[in-house]
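[Amino acid chain]
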Amino acid sequence: MIHEFEWNAPGPAEPRFSPGDYTTLSEKNKAPHRVGLQTDNESIDSASIKRRILVVDDEDSIRILLSRFLARAGFEVDSAEDGAVAIERMQESDYDAVVSDLMMPHVDGFSLLAFIEKERPHLLPRTIVLTAYSRLAEERLNPACSLVEKPFDLEKMLAMIRSFFDSQPQG
């Protein structure tokens, strides 16, 4: 079932996206902070339920698109507009995977990856770096990370994220 959606997050705070939560235009004041696309008639991949993903991108349209897409796929998604906010979120919560832009203001993707490498090294193999500057990224990135060049294919990215968890028990 397809719904028409409106983004109505308050101020600079980023919403958390979870499967089953959605805001339609007719219900826009009932759930303004939580958005997802799952309906009762659609199935969720059970392997992705409760897996938490942090999406980090300074471009609102990309961050929102990825967050909604991954929420619809059954993941719980938090988002951050730059590396500084992402680091704060990672200090407050645990994540199973990270999808991050590379070039961002304030704290960029390289600095975020340095934090992950030092403080959350188990996440490196489950980190996807999005960039339009793949040559620069290839030279500087930890080889444990996955590099995806912009523009990217959402279905291929989803397959990559699901592959992170194929052989791992959920926890």
About this structure: The radius of gyration is 16 Å. The first strand starts at residue 16 and ends at 17.
